[in-house]
Amino acid sequence: MLVGVFYEAIHLPGEAGRENRRVLLDLRPPPGEPEPFPPLWKQAANLAGAVVAHAAGGFKEATPEERDRRLALCLVCEHWREERCTQCGCYVRAKAAWLEQKCPVGKW
């Protein structure tokens, strides 16, 4: 999902060499609105990739300590919503239990 702010560099008269920015396109969610989940097709692709990786890894589970460590990081993450990650769309409790899985923003 494309999320961010795109700027155009502009030069103001009378301010030699000073560059300013003007917002061209702001694709961030409006303030106060929850971060959206990825499109359904992307969530399906993420799930399929996770299942294939889990199978390729021999269906190994994380230790209870590792799973709990991962969940503790997710619970305070800005991308946690409704038991899911807004970056990948995964149900975090299931994803955190699979040994080979990784956080999409690199927190675990």
Structural notes for this entry:
There is one protein chain. By secondary structure, the chain is α+β, with helices and mostly antiparallel strands. It has a domain at 32-97. 32% of the residues lie in helices and 18% in strands. The strands form 2 sheets. Strands 1-2 form a two-stranded antiparallel ribbon. The chain starts with a strand and ends in an 11-residue tail after the last helix. The mean pLDDT is 84.
Which features characterize this protein?
two-stranded antiparallel ribbon, 32% helix, single chain, alpha+beta, 108 residues, two-stranded antiparallel sheet
Q: Stretches where pLDDT falls below 50 for ≥5 residues?
A: none
Main sheet overview? 2 strands, antiparallel
Q: Looking across the biggest beta sheet, what order are the strands in?
A: 1-2
Judging from the principal axes of the Cα atoms, what is the shape? globular
Query: Which class of secondary structure composition applies to the elements?
Result: alpha+beta
Strand content: 15-25%
Rg, Å, rounded? 19 Å
**Overall pLDDT level:** 84
**Number of helical segments?**
3
The helix/strand order is EEHHEEH
Helical residues, percent: 25-40%
Give the termini distance in whole angstroms.
21 Å
Give the number of DSSP strands: 4
Oligomeric category: single chain
